[in-house]
Amino acid sequence: MRKTNNIILETAIKVLLFMIVLYSVYIFTAGHYYPGGGFIGGLMTAGAIVLLLIAYDIKTVAKILPINYRILTSIGLLFAIGTSAGAIVFNVPFLTHAFGDIQLPILGELSLHTATLFDLGVYFVVVGVTMTIIQTIGEDE
Amino acid sequence: MSEIINILIGFFILAGAVLCLIATFGVIRLPDVYTRNHAASKAATLGVMSILLGTFIYFYALEGHFNSRLILGIVFLFMTSPVSGHLINRAAYYSGVKLWDKTVRDDLKEYNKKMMGKSSAN
């Protein structure tokens, strides 16, 4: 590991990373009513992790975020297939989604939709696939 | 009230566009990488920030829509653009790009020479 003395980039990334992750979560959750959704949100989260990879080396990032991205991809696919196949239990066609206004203790009345869970699956798959590609190309051991 | 707001919006957007144009002229006219980067990373940052501010005022005053993403964009640009300019300059310097012929002073070169001497002495 080469010491680069790149303190300006590392300090800037410490602040910027929170903004990028926050914006990606916003993009993900606003996807039903505004432009956005699982795909762009996942890509933006992957972009934040790539920014970490630019500032630090691959082992440090693996220590900061101990995630196996192949498992993340399979969890995302499981979410997508689970929310799609759950419709069969209620005797409606595959991929039928449900929504309802649900009263929660602290948050109050929320309109929840199972398409968000499908979108969460898309988000996990996009993050997992992007990071798997970049890490596989990046590491040379 | 509305006239003042209109003038403000027009001023910010025009000033931003003119600053971006000046940045482009700087990139074309200046002699070496470092001075070009100086023009691009400073003037273009302020220019795009002014355009975003004008857009924000437009949507807030005339449409009644507080767009926090524009504020976030202004802050983000203000933080990232100088850092990227610094990194490009640094990469150019360490990959051996020559300074302009009429440059009179290169403190980093002397510093690096001194550090080299010290590390070989140890």
TrEMBL record, chain A:
Keyword tags: Cell membrane, Membrane, Transmembrane, Transmembrane helix
Membrane topology: Multi-pass membrane protein
Single GO cellular component term: plasma membrane
Subcellular location: Cell membrane
UniProt key word Hydrolase: no
Keyword Membrane: yes
Family: Belongs to the CPA3 antiporters (TC 2.A.63) subunit B family.
Protein name (database record): Na(+)/H(+) antiporter subunit B
From TrEMBL, chain B:
Transmembrane residue ranges: 6-31, 43-62, 68-88
Record has Acetylation as a keyword: no
Membrane topology according to the record: Multi-pass membrane protein
Intracellular or extracellular location(s): Membrane
Any one GO molecular-function label of the UniProt entry: sodium:proton antiporter activity
Any Gene Ontology CC annotation: membrane
Keywords from the named record: Antiport, Membrane, Transmembrane, Transmembrane helix, Transport
Family that this chain belongs to: Belongs to the CPA3 antiporters (TC 2.A.63) subunit G family.
Protein name: Na+/H+ antiporter subunit G
Annotated organism of origin: Niallia endozanthoxylica
